[in-house]
């Protein structure tokens, strides 16, 4: 908790509650105004910044050990230790920051622990000038809520109001946001509200935070059952904290399709309303992005047409189209992709499936999206992400198996599209370090179960289990640290990304209406563009001639650009002014 008027906790499962402060225990009382809440008179003990505290619960038979606060703001002793009272005040210097609207942004996804050698918010802050030089406008941090140990992707978080201590804690995060705003960069935060991590999750001892069922990652959060009002308030208060107190510019909601939300008003609508209220209060825009593979336009559609009204969604479909064409992989969900025709169709419509058949799912999937009504920039696209790299057996990046020409070809399609692009840290220089899944659960049995679960899942998807790195091995984490020493090929890839991002801004590829986009294709090549500028791309190992021409703006190779046609080498592309 932040330093406030009194200690309090929602614990409807408890028969009695005791507050533990400075190794002393104090009985708490029922709050007469709020069902299930326990409070203590501040005249007995009041919170002050830096205090360590915990709660003990009596279930009618036994007293629990001291447990961290479900709304803890800091866990300096780890997820099993005492909570710390945090002073919410911070000497912000970003009063001139007016924020960024999503259209026209370039997002850069960062894992704090592996982005720099230090593995801290300060390490990220040291690279802000580099990101500006590249052409990035927004940093998106993978989840920073506390998890077991000091190595994790972040999706095993358990304390939704707190910040991982080894990254720099809440103070470190605020310093990073303040520094980013000073340089004109926005900061998004990835948050997980579909499950709690398995290590250090004591919330179920306090109250009905969970309900029957299981996601692929943990128990289901109680968004619809009895007492779910308080659970939803738990989420919404955390959302407001990040957007208001921490000055975060936007949130990415992890796997919203895994929400067990059967109420008339979606939790996504309520999150967006909190975001809107903070934006109205501050005059600074806030962005809410949903991750989903459902091809469901309700995510971004306005409430007036039955939607949830989120700012944007992650769109895996473009990634899958490009990845299969360039890599040749067709296993698992990639079976639904793999032709230039499918890429062209997806570029025209954003969703691959629009109430159409999916071979992977063995059923029809999706629904058409009216991009003319909402704007194509509300789709977030990419050549890879933490998921698309890390959920491979070896966690190998595309840059570890593709040539520089193939890598930049993929980037050109994403960066010259009308959708909002996102880069995954290191792709802009062809990083050769992998990004495998890693964790450091404090329980050996949890580590064993996680390891075996990964092996089983990869075997089911057709990967060789022998290639799967042990998630709990410190070397797995160490292997994911980015190396910032570039060779000549990496310098050239960086310069290509930088050039493409500059041209994206110059020619305003983030256009308002997808109907302006002109897409033509054959079995091996594709053109994509507008009346003034067009990208010609060759998705084959053969030389091809494409029926568009003009003046060459940029290419990674040596195309022959004439007035009416362009000849591209293997995996080549040309950005042409008509």
UniProtKB/TrEMBL annotation:
SMART domains per UniProt: Aamy (SM00642)
GO MF annotation list: 4-alpha-D-(1->4)-alpha-D-glucanotrehalose trehalohydrolase activity
Reactions accelerated catalytically: hydrolysis of (1->4)-alpha-D-glucosidic linkage in 4-alpha-D-[(1->4)-alpha-D-glucanosyl]n trehalose to yield trehalose and (1->4)-alpha-D-glucan
Residue intervals of the Glycosyl hydrolase family 13 catalytic domain: 109-450
Location relative to the cell: Cytoplasm
Species of the source: Corynebacterium qintianiae
Catalytic-site annotation from UniProt: 254, 291
Protein name: Malto-oligosyltrehalose trehalohydrolase
One GO CC annotation: cytoplasm
GO biological process, one term: trehalose biosynthetic process
Enzyme Commission designation: 3.2.1.141
Cross-referenced InterPro entries: DUF3459, GH, GH13_cat_dom, Ig-like_fold, Ig_E-set, Trehalose_TreZ, Trehalose_TreZ_E-set_sf
Keyword list, A-Z: Carbohydrate metabolism, Cytoplasm, Glycosidase, Hydrolase
Residues that hold substrate according to the record: 252-257, 316-320, 386-391
Pfam families listed in its UniProt record: Alpha-amylase (PF00128), DUF3459 (PF11941)
Primary residence: cytoplasm
Sites marked Transition state stabilizer: 387
């Amino acid at each position: 908790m932040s330093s406030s008027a009194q200690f309090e906790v929602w614990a409807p499962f408890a028969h009695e509650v005791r507050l533990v402060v400075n190794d002393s225990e104090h009985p708490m009382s029922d709050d007469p105004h709020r069902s299930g809440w326990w409070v203590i008179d501040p005249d007995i003990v009041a919170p002050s910044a830096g205090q360590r505290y915990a709660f003990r619960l009596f279930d009618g038979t036994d007293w629990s050990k001291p447990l961290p606060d479900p709304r803890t703001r800091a866990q300096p002793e780890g997820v099993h230790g005492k909570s710390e009272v945090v002073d919410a005040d911070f000497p912000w210097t970003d009063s001139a920051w007016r924020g960024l609207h999503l259209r026209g942004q370039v997002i850069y996804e960062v894992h704090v622990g592996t982005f720099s050698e230090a593995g801290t918010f300060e390490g990220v802050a040291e690279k802000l000038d580099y990101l500006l030089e590249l052409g990035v406008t927004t940093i998106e941090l993978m989840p920073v809520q506390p998890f077991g140990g000091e190595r994790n992707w972040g999706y095993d978080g358990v304390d939704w109001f707190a910040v991982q201590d080894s990254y720099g804690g809440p103070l470190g995060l605020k310093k990073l946001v303040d520094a980013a705003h000073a340089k004109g960069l926005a900061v998004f935060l990835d948050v997980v509200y579909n499950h709690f991590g398995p290590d250090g999750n004591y919330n179920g001892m306090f109250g009905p935070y969970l309900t029957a069922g299981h996601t692929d990652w943990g128990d289901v959060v109680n968004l619809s059952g009895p007492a779910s009002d308080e659970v939803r308030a738990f989420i919404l208060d955390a959302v407001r904290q990040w957007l208001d107190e921490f000055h975060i510019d936007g949130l990415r909601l992890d796997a919203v399709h895994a929400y067990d939300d059967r109420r008339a008003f979606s939790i996504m609508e309520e999150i967006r309303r909190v975001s809107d209220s903070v934006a109205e209060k501050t005059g600074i825009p806030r962005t809410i992005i949903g991750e989903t593979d459902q091809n469901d336009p309700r995510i971004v559609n306005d409430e007036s047409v039955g939607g949830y009204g989120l700012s944007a969604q992650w769109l895996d479909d473009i990634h899958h189209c490009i990845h299969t064409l360039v890599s040749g992989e067709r296993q698992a969900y990639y079976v639904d992709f793999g032709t230039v025709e499918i890429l062209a169709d997806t570029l025209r419509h954003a969703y691959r499936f629009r109430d159409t058949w999916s071979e992977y799912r063995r059923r029809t999937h999706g629904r058409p999206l009216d991009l003319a009504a909402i704007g194509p920039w509300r789709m977030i696209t990419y050549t890879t992400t933490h998921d698309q790299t890390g959920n491979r057996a070896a966690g190998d990046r595309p840059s570890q198996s593709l040539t520089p020409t193939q890598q930049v070809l993929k980037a050109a399609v994403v960066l010259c599209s009308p959708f909002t692009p996102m880069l995954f840290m290191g792709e802009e220089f062809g990083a050769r370090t992998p990004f495998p899944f890693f964790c450091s659960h404090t329980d050996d049995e949890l580590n064993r179960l996680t390891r075996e679960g990964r092996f089983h899942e990869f075997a089911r998807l057709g990967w060789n289990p022998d290639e799967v790195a042990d998630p709990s091995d410190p070397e797995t984490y160490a292997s994911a640290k980015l190396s910032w020493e570039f060779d000549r090929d990496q310098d050239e890839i960086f310069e290509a990304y930088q050039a493409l991002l500059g041209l994206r801004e110059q020619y305003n590829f983030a256009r308002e209406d997808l109907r302006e986009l002109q897409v033509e294709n054959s079995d091996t090549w594709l053109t994509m563009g507008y009346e003034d500028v067009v990208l010609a791309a060759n998705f084959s190992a053969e030389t091809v001639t494409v029926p568009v021409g003009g003046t060459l703006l940029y290419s990674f190779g040596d195309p022959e650009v004439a007035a009416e046609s362009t000849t591209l080498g293997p995996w080549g592309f040309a950005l042409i002014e008509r």
